[in-house]
Predict the 3D structure of the following.
Amino acid sequence: MTLQSKESGTKSSDEWMVSDELKELDAAESELVEKEKHLTLLTNESFSKMKEVSKINRDLQNRIKSLQELSASLNRKNDELKIANRELERKTTRNNQISLELKEKLEHVTQKEKELSLQRDFLAKRLDETTQDLVKAEKFAIIGELSARLAHDLRNPLSVIKNTMDVMSAKQNMKIEERLQHIARFKRAVQRMSHQIDDVLDFVKKTEMVLHDTSLHSIMDNAINVILIPPNIKIFLPQNDVSIICDSRKLEAVFSNIILNAIQATNDNGEVKIRIMDIGSNVKIEFEDTGNGIPATTIQKIFDPLFTTKQTGTGLGLSICKNIVEQHGGTIAVTSPPTIFTITLPKNMLQNNPRNSQTFET
Amino acid sequence: MVNDLMVHDGQIPVDDNHVGIRAIVVDDDADVREIFIELLQMNDIKVVANGINGKEAVELYKIHHPDFVFLDYLMPEYDGLYAIEKIREFDPHGKIILVSGSHFERNVLGDTVKAIIKKPIEISEIFKAINKIILAT
């Protein structure tokens, strides 16, 4: 201003003053423009900053939104988990209940099993008793049939005795030959009756075993001695011998019965071969004959009591043999043809059957 | 009483109807058969033939046409029942007397036989049966 006033010193002071003011105005104006520029710049700057901030804000908002979403989703998941958890709990409860029920059922089943087992035992016992009853009934039936058969069989020799007596009484003066013939009839009749009675008694009563260590060969010799051997029969005795613990009298009856059957099978004309085989703790005895053999229908029933193919047989012989062999803990079997009766006996029946030890005599 | 008379003359004075009749005897037991025949012959019954089973009974009946058949029941293969059926087929009026050891035949046979005599054979029973049958026919 001072400068302006100096330059304009030549001019009027007002001139000077206006000029100065103009200058001052220009300066102010450029300063204003400058400031305006600066402001514009600042505005621009702040605008961009604003923009930036707004962007950040948007980002933040986005983030918050996403976080919110995440949170919501987590909540949802949590809810779902809760539901699942509840479901699980329910299921667990239910499982526990089922498990309990199963346990109860299992107990029930176990009890039922026990009951069934008891029932089974009871039934088994009943079956056993019934079987025994049946066996008993069968025995009674056999004894009944046996008595009927015995009565029937005794009537024939009885008839012979009676009629022979009638004839002898009527004919006082009988020739000696005729008399002998009648006496022979008496003898046969009496023998038959004793034989039949003996067989029945042997069958009905199971006598105690009297055990000795005895040579089988000696038992066979005794068995053959009681048989009347027909002239056309040849008996081959074994070369070897084995001693066993047995009731020798009972085995003698078995052997003589089988040898007698063998002789009859050959029609009194043929051979009977006897073999003894030592097979460890047992001994096997075979009786083979040269007869025609036994028909298949007969062989099935051959050891059955009362079964017979003979006219004067009681059907008890082989049945008794089987009883005796089984009493010794052995077995008897037959194959045919050629007919071979095989008896297998333990050498020491006391080893297998200690109950019999009481009757052992040394 | 009967036995006392038999001791004296070997005959039984029940009746004379049996005298001279022709008979066959069938029994599988030789001793029973032989002594029974001897007893019958002694008492004037003519035994024209004898056999050992039902089949022989039929054959002998057809050959000899006897007045009476004395037939055992239990015999091997062809028993008394077989003989009864076959003889009745051949001659419905055949006079068969069953001579047997047991009771059960009565149930099986009904009235297919004229009489059943139980063993041991009592000769007076035989005569009684013969008389009854002859009087009835």
User: Anything to note?
Assistant: Chain B has one domain: 21-136. The first helix of chain B runs from residue 2 to 9.
